[in-house]
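Q: Structure tokens for this one, please.
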Amino acid sequence: MNQRNLIFKTMLGLLLIAAAFLLLSSDAFATSIQGIQPGTVRVNNLSCVEALFNILANGAEVVDIIVASAILTTVPRVYAINKRSAIRRIVTSAVFLGAGLSTPSTVNMLVITARDTNLFS
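A: Here is the predicted structure, written as tokens:
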């Protein structure tokens, strides 16, 4: 057995142990809300969804900026070989950068639209 397979199996075993521990101890993370009067508890579902979408949008923004930067770092090396390919890489990185920077505002616009049309009420 080579070293890579041994490391992979060890990491997989540790991941399975951690997942089993979290599943078995999930009662420790449960939240109990107790009050004087039992009744209906309202949850603002839109705020939960909005927070999730903001996290995903910001993550996508970071990933797109990293990808654009990685593509831009290869331009000087490629430019010496093929100028057209270097220009194509510059345009591709500009597209990734534009998409990354516009993702959070686009997601916020969609969430605001959903809030105004009462989709989550």
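A few notes: The helical segments are 3-24, 45-73, 75-79, 83-116. Residues 43-116 form one domain.
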